[in-house]
């Protein structure tokens, strides 16, 4: 049948992933660095993803396509819902609070390097592993950083991490909607005082900005967000 459906210009697409959280049906994925419509049946043709592409690579066209199938969409989304509900059994994901007066996991030392002091207050730090109920998020100033930032910016600990609780992630490689859901829950459950956002200058990394803004909006809270962009040469933009 001929109907309206999403069309993605791969020549324009830079793989930033900003379109993905705005497609509730999970019809778009980043494959080989480009956004692609993975199945005609998943796209309702309503264009909720339009306006979220900085490259204007997404349009609605009319062409022969399989009919939109809500049952197929549910099957497509089911694995993600299951993954979100599964407990993390890895011992390395046990919450550890390094702040003064807090307990640490057995066998973990609070010693510091003689050359440079670590400002890390907790473990784990990755979006997928952190728990929104962890003690180190209570009344915290939150730092949300892209995975690459600490490698590119040498003074990450002293300039950004000191005194803050941390979550890190990559909006291009990971599940953006999952990040938004978890960050929303984290903000709702804790008296977060502020959010500092640090991302790289590359276009895909600005997906982290969308994650933070959407999570704050969904939480119903009003929070100051301070953003810093780091160049690939390791400088503040």
Automatic annotation (TrEMBL):
Domain 4Fe-4S ferredoxin-type: 4-33, 34-63
InterPro entries reported in the protein's UniProt record: 4Fe4S_Fe-S-bd (IPR017896), Corrinoid_activation_enz (IPR052911)
UniProt-listed Pfam families: Fer4_10
SUPFAM superfamilies per record: 4Fe-4S ferredoxins
PROSITE patterns the record matches: 4FE4S_FER_2 (PS51379)
Name of the protein in question: 4Fe-4S ferredoxin-type domain-containing protein
């Amino acid at each position: 049948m001929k109907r309206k459906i999403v069309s993605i210009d791969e020549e324009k697409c830079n793989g930033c992933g900003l379109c993905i959280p705005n497609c509730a049906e999970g019809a778009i994925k980043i494959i080989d660095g480009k956004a692609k419509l993975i199945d005609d049946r998943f796209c309702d043709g309503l264009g909720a993803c339009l306006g979220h592409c900085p490259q204007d690579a997404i349009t609605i066209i009319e062409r022969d396509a399989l009919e939109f199938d809500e049952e197929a969409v549910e099957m497509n989304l089911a694995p993600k819902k299951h993954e979100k509900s599964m407990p993390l059994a890895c011992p390395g994901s046990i919450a550890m609070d390094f702040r003064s007066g807090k307990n640490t996991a057995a066998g973990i030392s609070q010693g510091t390097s003689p050359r440079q002091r670590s400002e890390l207050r907790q473990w784990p730090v990755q979006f997928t592993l952190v728990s929104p109920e962890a003690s180190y998020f209570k009344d915290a100033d939150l730092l949300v950083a892209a995975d690459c930032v600490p490698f590119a910016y040498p003074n990450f600990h002293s300039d950004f991490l000191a005194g803050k609780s941390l979550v890190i992630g990559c909006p291009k490689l990971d599940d953006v909607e999952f990040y938004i859901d978890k960050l929303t829950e984290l903000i709702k459950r804790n008296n977060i005082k502020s959010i500092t956002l640090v991302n790289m200058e590359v276009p895909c990394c600005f997906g982290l900005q969308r994650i933070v803004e959407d999570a704050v909006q969904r939480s119903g809270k009003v929070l100051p967000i301070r953003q810093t962009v780091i160049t690939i040469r390791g400088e503040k933009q």
